[in-house]
Amino acid sequence: MSRAARTEDYTRAVLRVPDLDGRALVLRPRPAGEVVGTFPFDAPVHVVTAHNPGAARPGDAGNADRQARLEADLDARGLRWTRTVAGAEDGGHAEEGALVVGLDDDEARALGAAWGQDAVFRWSRSAWTVLACDDAPSVAMGWEIV
User: Which residues are registered as beta bridge partners of 30?
Assistant: First the structure.
């Protein structure tokens, strides 16, 4: 799969956060500038994963091991985070991840790059953004919570 196709997949991903302070939410991308719902944080948050680095597809066991090591890394850094699942609307493809509080964009990109990711997500009051971990362009979209 090409880099452009992988970036396109990011722009269609639906984010499920099953345990955000005891509340479940589903975040869907919308056209840029369109926001539906109330942003539940004081500052932007980032979503990172260790699944399927770049074009590699290490399989279920490999992805689970990578994700466990990412979560241990987040804990070792003292970061506040919660598990997420991002993927296709129909559930046909899903990847575990972590919604992380307290990173800036450069730290989030560096973390994603360290785990072989093309991009990470940034969620803010005004946008759901695919932040490229390399020199590819980032893509800002709107969002809605359902």
Answer: 142
Which pLDDT belongs to residue 20?
Answer: 65
Q: What is the pLDDT of residue 24?
A: 85
pTM: 0.92
Task: Give the model's confidence band at 103: pLDDT under 50 very low, under 70 low, under 90 confident, else very high.
Answer: very high
What gap in Å lies between CA 38 and CA 130, rounded to an integer?
20
Q: Write the single-letter amino acid at 54.
A: G
Strand ranges in 31-118 using DSSP code E only, listed in sequence order: 35-36, 45-48, 80-87, 94-101
Distance separating alpha carbons of residues 86 and 93, to the nearest angstrom: 8
Q: Looking at beta carbons, which pairs linking 5-12 to residues 24 or more positions away fall under 8 Å?
A: 6/54, 6/55, 6/118, 7/118, 7/119, 7/130, 7/132, 7/136, 7/139, 9/93, 10/118, 10/119, 10/121, 10/130, 10/139, 11/130, 11/139, 11/141, 12/88, 12/89
Amino acid identity for residue 121 in this structure: F
